[in-house]
Design goal:
This protein is mostly helical. The protein contains four helices and no strands. It is globular. The two termini are about 15 Å apart.
Length: about 80
């Protein structure tokens, strides 16, 4: 499943563009969002920035779940 076409919805938001500019300039950002939005947000930021994304979770099961959720947002990208 390819969900990447939906990334344009967040990319058109002013708040996201400001966040993406910070990530692009600094190479990092500390972001607080509801867990269900993480894959969408990280995929959009990865697309908007030349920097790789590093996501840290407290438990390995959370990391596995995040991986499973982000893959459809980033087809053709090594995750």
């Amino acid at each position: 499943m390819d969900l990447s076409k939906l990334l344009g919805l967040i990319e058109s938001q002013d708040q996201f563009r400001e966040l993406a500019a910070v990530v692009k300039a600094k190479g990092s950002a500390c972001i607080s969002a509801v867990p269900s939005a993480w894959p969408y947000l990280v995929a959009a930021l990865r697309k908007a920035s030349p920097h790789p994304a590093l996501v840290i979770t407290a438990r390995s099961e959370e990391a596995r779940r995040f991986y499973e959720q982000i893959v459809p947002w980033c087809p053709g990208v090594t995750v």
